[in-house]
């Protein structure tokens, strides 16, 4: 069993109001997963704390990457409601990426990560290019963890390898190039966004000279959700 991670970024765009977008996400999309699937261990949503697009992020810890192919999960898209099917067609961006966990620095006493009780308030996501095989990224992760432990305001980092992705939306270009995404991801949990701008974090978050940070985004917590797996619905 290999623990999985689901990351979805989205942008409502001109055809979907923020009110409609939030109502759908909070009252239909998230509950269908977290209220019914014990394989979804946590779920939280964040809004952009930078000027980047997409401006919304959803993250879910999943007990096993096999969940992404299980009928209990795949039917949620295959049998989606008429409302959801209509809304998804109107979104500017819906970028869904599934990952396998590579390394975890470990749970922090400072936050509960994505659980509703004391959730992490800020995330820094970094898509990383590391030359070589997956083992090179594992070594990069270990080096980053050692360096990050000395950074004030850092709480936890987990690294992932992408196993599947699909990007749709009215603003997404046609063709295979729009579907290309970086293979490796690091998600840093921090206590304030000022951590992201510190030289200490910048040095620690990329400890190998051959690695390249392809994209960095900053996020602020919107909501961490209860779920059946935690028994707190």
Please explain how this structure is put together.
- It is built from five helices and eight strands.
- The chain is an alpha+beta fold.
- It has an eight-stranded antiparallel β-barrel.
- Strand 2 and strand 3 form a beta hairpin.
- The mean pLDDT is 96.
- This is EthD domain-containing protein.
- It comes from Mycena pura.
Helix count, DSSP H or I runs of 4 or more residues: 5
Radius of gyration: 17 Å
Following the backbone from N to C, one meets helices and strands in this order, namely: EHEEHHEEHEEHE
Strand order of the largest sheet: 1-3-2-8-5-7-6-4
Strand segment tally: 8
pLDDT under 50 segments (min length 5)? none
Which class of secondary structure composition applies to the elements? alpha+beta
Distance between the termini: 26 Å
Largest sheet: 8 strands, antiparallel, barrel
Produce the secondary structure layout.
Blueprint: E1 4-11, H1 18-34, E2 40-48, E3 56-62, H2 71-78, H3 82-90, E4 93-104, E5 122-129, H4 134-148, E6 154-168, E7 184-190, H5 199-204, E8 212-224
Antiparallel strand pairs: 1-3, 1-4, 2-3, 2-8, 4-6, 5-7, 5-8, 6-7
């Amino acid at each position: 069993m290999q623990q999985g991670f689901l990351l979805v970024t989205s942008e409502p765009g001109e055809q979907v109001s923020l009110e409609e977008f939030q109502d759908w996400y909070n009252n239909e999309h998230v509950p269908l997963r977290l209220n019914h699937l014990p394989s979804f261990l946590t779920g939280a949503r964040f809004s952009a704390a930078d000027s980047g697009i997409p401006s919304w992020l959803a993250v879910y810890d999943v007990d096993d990457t096999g969940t992404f192919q299980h009928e209990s999960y795949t039917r949620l898209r295959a049998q989606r409601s008429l409302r959801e099917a209509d809304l998804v067609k109107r979104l500017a961006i819906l970028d869904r990426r599934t990952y396998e966990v590579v390394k975890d620095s470990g749970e922090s006493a400072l936050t509960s990560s994505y659980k509703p009780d004391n959730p992490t308030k800020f995330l820094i996501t970094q898509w990383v290019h590391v030359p070589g095989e997956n083992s090179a990224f594992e070594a990069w992760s270990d080096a980053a963890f050692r360096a990050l432990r000395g950074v004030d305001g850092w709480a936890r980092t987990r690294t992932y390898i992408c196993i599947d992705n699909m990007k749709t939306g009215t603003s997404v270009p046609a063709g295979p190039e729009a579907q290309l995404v970086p293979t490796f991801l690091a998600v840093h949990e921090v206590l304030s966004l000022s951590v992201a701008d510190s030289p200490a974090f910048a040095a620690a978050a990329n400890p190998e000279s051959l690695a390249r940070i392809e994209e960095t985004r900053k996020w602020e917590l919107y909501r961490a959700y209860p779920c059946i797996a935690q028994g707190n619905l």
